[in-house]
Every structure is written in structure tokens, then in C-alpha cells.
């Protein structure tokens, strides 16, 4: 991949990708590392898409896998510690603390699906590819996530 | 649990004004619209800090690629060394198993090495040459691939 080509892709994807990783991982400092690792893997990948849309989806897929790997590698104890620091870290980033807290109450998969569907505007098939979920399950999982978020927004106990 | 049955309900519709008007009268679509708008607000509220530069990432990627190439180049040498080590260990073990006395075993081993000295030397030279050639080819191939990629 040529330098200029990568530069264009980076300009188009870096900020939305960072926001995505921060929101689904719930950790801004982890997002920095994951973002960097995502682009390094993308650059060194032998088979990668060269068109902007394909590259964007590919980057989101790498980032999603890295976030899930991170969750898996966390021990129970350290996971609690990270969750406790979320609000503190995000308070510097998010304009609306309440929104951050509400979103953090969802499971990581629910956050992933909602973000990909509503912020990135991907269809069910693309979401299935990026989030490693069965295409047929996306509709149901997204429905449940949306229902849960609606209840949280309205202040109902979930 | 009831799933959305409205035929117009699609996640991608949330910015469509016509659909937004429909959503104001449709319970199912209004939920979709509400969540969509909420998610967009959340996205807008996410302040992105200064990110690493493109140059930094590319340099880091090149360094990582070189390290990977070096590991690949050293692989045949490592495999050969491991193979040679295994053969040597097995030979020594077999010699000690077959011989009851250590001194006679050592003498036997020395005799064997002496009798096959020429063959062993030639084999070592050929193996070293093959390993060096393989390492050189892999290094060159790796460098060419890296250059074409970056």
C-alpha cells in the first residue's frame, strides 16, 4: 500500500475508529493502544482491501477482535478495576456523563451492534462480518440491545 | 418479546425526513428513531484526542515487518540446529545404552566419528551452505514484499 493511499484511509477512519473503540471498550487509554495495533496489523496484513469502504470495514473488524481479545484476557479482578475507572476516564472525553453511564450499562456486544448500526450505518450483513456474529442473529440481538437501551434512556430498571 | 413488524423500520432510515414523519405516528419506528438519535448524540459527544501521526504508524509498521522477516529468515537455521542437536543427543544416548562401560563407549564414539569424519565434515559444510542460501533468499523475498507493501 502506498503512503498516500494509507494516509487517506487513516484520515477517513482514525477518528471514528477511536470513538468506536473507546465506546465499546469503555476505556480511553486502552483505545489508544488498540487503535495503534489495529493500524499496524492493517499495514502488515498480506491480504487487505484497498478501497475506502472495504478498508474501513476491515479496520473495524480488526479493532472489534482486539477489544474482545482484551476482554477475554482480563482476569475477573482486573476487569472490575477497569470498569471502575471507566467513568473517571470518560468524564474527560464525553460531553454528557449521563449518556456515557447509560451506554456503559450495556454489554460489550450490545454496544458494538448499536454503534455499528446507528453511528456507522452498516446493514445486518456487514455488522455480522465485523462483529463475528451470525447474520440471522444480528436482527434479534440488535432488537434486544435497542429495547434495553430504550429502557435505560427512559430510566427504567433493566 | 415482540419484534418490530413495521415494514418501514430500518436502522439506516433514521436521517430520512419522510420516515421521521412516519415514526412520529408509529410506536415501533419511534423507538428506532429515539435510539438512533440518542446514538448519534453519543457519537457527537465523544471528544477524540490527538491521535498518532501517519508517519509514526508507518515507521512502526516497517520496524515490525523487519523483525518478522528476520524471524522468518532465522527459522531454517533454528530448525537445522534443533535437528542436529536432537541427532547428537540421540547418538550419545544410544552409545551409552549399548555400551556397559563409559570408557569403552567414549572410545567407540570417537572411533565412529573418526571413521566417518570425512562424511560428517562434508555433510556439515553442505548443511551450512543450504541454510545460508535459504536465509539469504528468505531475507531478500521478505524485504521485497515489505517494500511492495509499504
How would you describe this structure to a colleague?
The complex is a heterodimer of chains A (158) and B (150). Chain A has helices at 3-25, 28-44, 52-73, 76-90, 97-104, 108-119, 124-131, 135-153. Chain A is mainly α. Chain A folds into 2 domains: 1-95, no CATH class; 105-158, Arc Repressor Mutant, subunit A. Chain B is elongated, with a radius of gyration of 35 Å. Chain B is built from 5 helices and no strands. With 150 residues, chain B is an all-alpha fold. Chain B folds into 2 domains: 11-44, no CATH class; 54-149, no CATH class. The chains are: A mainly alpha (158), B mainly alpha (150).
Topology of this protein?
The complex is a heterodimer of chains A (158) and B (150).
Chain A lengths: L2 H23 L2 H17 L7 H22 L2 H15 L6 H8 L3 H12 L4 H8 L3 H19 L5
Helix pairs in contact in A: 1-2, 1-3, 1-6, 2-3, 3-7, 6-8, 7-8
Chain B lengths: L16 H7 L3 H18 L9 H45 L3 H14 L1 H33 L1
Order of helices and strands of chain A: HHHHHHHH
Main β-sheet of chain B: number of strands, strand sense, barrel status? none
Largest sheet of chain A: none
Q: What is the CA-CA span between the terminal residues of chain B? A: 51 Å
Coarse structural class of chain A? mainly alpha
Query: What oligomerization state is this entry in?
Result: heterodimer
What count of domains describes the coordinates of chain A? 2
Ends of chain A: how far apart?
Answer: 47 Å
Number of helices of chain A: 8
Query: Low-confidence segments of chain B, ≥5 residues, pLDDT <50?
Result: none
Q: Which percent bin holds the helix content of chain B?
A: over 70%
Average pLDDT, all residues of chain B: 78
Radius of gyration of chain B: 35 Å
Strand runs of chain A, count: 0
Strand fraction of chain B equals under 5%
Number of helices of chain B: 5
**Helix vs. strand class of chain B:** mainly alpha
Round the Cα radius of gyration of chain A to an integer and report it. 16 Å
Name the beta content range of chain A.
Answer: under 5%
**What series of H and E elements makes up the topology of chain B?**
HHHHH
Amino acid at each position: 500500500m502506498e503512503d498516500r493511499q494509507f494516509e487517506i484511509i487513516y484520515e477517513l477512519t482514525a477518528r471514528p475508529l477511536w470513538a468506536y473503540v473507546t465506546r465499546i471498550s469503555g476505556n480511553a487509554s486502552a483505545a489508544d493502544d488498540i487503535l495503534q495495533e489495529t493500524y499496524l496489523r492493517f499495514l502488515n496484513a498480506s491480504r487487505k482491501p484497498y478501497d475506502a469502504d472495504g478498508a474501513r470495514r476491515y479496520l473495524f473488524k480488526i479493532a472489534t477482535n482486539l477489544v474482545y481479545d482484551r476482554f477475554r484476557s482480563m482476569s475477573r479482578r482486573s476487569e472490575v478495576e477497569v470498569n471502575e475507572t471507566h467513568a473517571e476516564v470518560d468524564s474527560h472525553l464525553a460531553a454528557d456523563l449521563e449518556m456515557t453511564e447509560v451506554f456503559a450499562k450495556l454489554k460489550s456486544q450490545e454496544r458494538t451492534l448499536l454503534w455499528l448500526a446507528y453511528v456507522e450505518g452498516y446493514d445486518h450483513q456487514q455488522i455480522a462480518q465485523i462483529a463475528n456474529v451470525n447474520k440471522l442473529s444480528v436482527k434479534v440481538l440488535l432488537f434486544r440491545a435497542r429495547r434495553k437501551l430504550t429502557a435505560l434512556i427512559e430510566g427504567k430498571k433493566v | 418479546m415482540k419484534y418490530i413488524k413495521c415494514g418501514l423500520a430500518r436502522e439506516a432510515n433514521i436521517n430520512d425526513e419522510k420516515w421521521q414523519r412516519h415514526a412520529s405516528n408509529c410506536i415501533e419506528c419511534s423507538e428506532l428513531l429515539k435510539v438512533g438519535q440518542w446514538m448519534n448524540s453519543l457519537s457527537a459527544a465523544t471528544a477524540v484526542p490527538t491521535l498518532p501521526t501517519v508517519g509514526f504508524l508507518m515507521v512502526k509498521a516497517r520496524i515490525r515487518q523487519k523483525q518478522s522477516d528476520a524471524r522468518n529468515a532465522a527459522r531454517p537455521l533454528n530448525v537445522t540446529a534443533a535437528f542436529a542437536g536432537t541427532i547428537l543427543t540421540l547418538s550419545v544416548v544410544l552409545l551409552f545404552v549399548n555400551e556397559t562401560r563409559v570408557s569403552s563407549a567414549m572410545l567407540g564414539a570417537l572411533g565412529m566419528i573418526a571413521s566417518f569424519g570425512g562424511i560428517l565434515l562434508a555433510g556439515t559444510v553442505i548443511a551450512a551452505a543450504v541454510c545460508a542460501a535459504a536465509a539469504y533468499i528468505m531475507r531478500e523475498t521478505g524485504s521485497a514484499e515489505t517494500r511492495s507493501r509499504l
